[in-house]
Write a structure and sequence with these properties.
about 240 residues, mainly alpha
Length: about 240
């Protein structure tokens, strides 16, 4: 009689086999999957391609990971383990703690551009231990600051949504930059004439682009991206501060 599927379609809800081949553990499979995703992207990931990289057949991988969906779920939790989330810091320490958490999440997404495209498909419940550790700590930070559990949960969702949105756009820009083979400043300057021409019928955009060349020539574009991200993050935290007030 076939085994009954888990109530929650998640790798974390399925009992793990006690015996594994020492040369091909789940941990090794996941680590190699992350390396493949970082270099070649989500479209290149398959059990066959991963098996080739590991010197094993796809059948051997299925002894440890039941499907590609499970593999993605495991890879997502693996990179969540890179996040640096401070412990709950009391009523006065929530803002620097959440700032550090947001910056760490942004850095992680930029290291793993595939992450943002798959984080929404990792099952009905986020049961991975690294993700749960992050969520628990952030809820603890907000709880210590004075938010109730339900509102703290909404605040965590807002924080993650902001960071993923900004970092996904930034990762796409950096991918375009890598494909162009140009320096970031050079590429921005090469695009400026076309942009200035395109905004002639839009007065507010025209005023913005008129001021942009002086700003761009004086600032490292990477520093500008850092400032843009921090501006939005601090605005979000200002909203949390108002709710706490």
């Amino acid at each position: 009689m076939p085994a009954k599927p888990p109530a929650v379609p998640s790798v974390w809800a399925r009992p793990r086999k006690e015996r594994e081949q020492p040369a091909l553990s789940r941990e090794r499979i996941v680590a190699e999957a992350v390396r493949l995703l970082d270099v070649e992207g989500i479209d290149a990931l398959s059990m066959r391609s991963l098996g080739t990289r590991l010197g094993a057949g796809a059948t051997s991988l299925y002894r440890h990971v039941a499907s590609k969906d499970e593999l993605i779920e495991l890879a997502v939790d693996e990179v969540f383990g890179e996040l640096e989330v401070p412990e709950a810091a009391g009523p006065g320490g929530w803002r620097p703690a959440l700032t550090a958490c947001g910056q760490s999440l942004r850095s992680m997404v930029l290291r793993h551009p595939w992450f943002a495209s798959v984080v929404g498909q990792v099952g009905l419940a986020y049961l991975g231990p690294n993700m749960m550790r992050m969520s628990d700590r952030v809820l603890g930070i907000l709880g210590a600051a004075g938010l109730g559990v339900a509102e703290a949960d909404r605040a965590v969702k807002a924080l993650v949504a902001y960071v993923l949105g900004m970092a996904t756009s930034e990762a796409a820009w950096l991918n375009l930059l890598a494909q162009s083979g140009q320096d970031e400043g050079e590429l921005l300057r090469s695009l400026m004439p076309a942009a200035e021409q395109a905004v002639q019928d839009y007065p507010h955009l025209r005023a913005f682009y008129s001021a942009a060349p002086a700003k761009d020539s004086a600032q490292d574009p990477a520093e500008g991206r850092d400032e843009d991200f921090d501006y939005g993050l601090q605005c979000l935290l200002d909203g949390f501060q108002t709710r706490l007030g």
